[in-house]
Amino acid sequence: MNNKEFVFIYNPEQVKFFLNEWHLKIIDFGTGSKGDAFIKFKNNADFRQAFTVWRLRKH
Questions:
Q1: What is the pLDDT of residues 7-52, one digit of tens each?
Q2: Range list of H helices, the chain
Q3: What is the total count of domains within the chain?
Q4: CB within 8 Å of 10: residues ≥ 6 apart
Q5: 50 burial via Cβ count (<10 Å: 0-12, 13-18, 19+)
Q6: Is 1 part of any domain?
Q7: Is residue 49 within 8 Å of residue 23, measured between CB atoms?
Q8: Is 46 helix (H, G, I), strand (E, B) or coil?
Q9: Gyration radius from the chain CA atoms
Q10: What is the pLDDT of residues 9-21, one digit of tens each?
Q11: What is the pLDDT of residue 3?
Q12: Is residue 38 part of a domain?
């Protein structure tokens, strides 16, 4: 994970996980340069913990 202030998530399943399981706050949303939708989250301790759980989850 980088040290940027915000992260942009393009995977809708990942966004649902962050919202439903971790109740992270959406900072912004929009469309990327390739036309795909993104959700912007603050890169804080809660996000980093949620991201770690997302990466380690069983598929």
A1: 999 999 999 999 999 999 999 999 999 999 999 999 999 999 999 9
A2: 12-22, 45-56
A3: 1
A4: 32, 36, 37, 38
A5: buried
A6: no
A7: no
A8: helix
A9: 11
A10: 999 999 999 999 9
A11: 76
A12: yes
Taking the C-alpha atoms of residue 56 and residue 59, their distance in angstroms, rounded to an integer, is: 9
25 neighbors 43 (Cβ within 8 angstroms): no
What residue numbers bound the domain in which 41 lies? 6-56
Q: What's the pLDDT score for residue 1?
A: 57
Taking CA atoms, 36 is separated from 5, 16, 19, in Å, by: 21, 16, 19
Looking at the domain assignment, is residue 19 inside a domain? Answer: yes
Distance, in Å, from the CA atom of 35 to the CA atom of 50, rounded to the nearest integer, reads 26
φ, ψ for residue 26, nearest 5 deg? -75, 130
For residue 6, which phi and psi values (nearest 5 degrees)? -130, 155
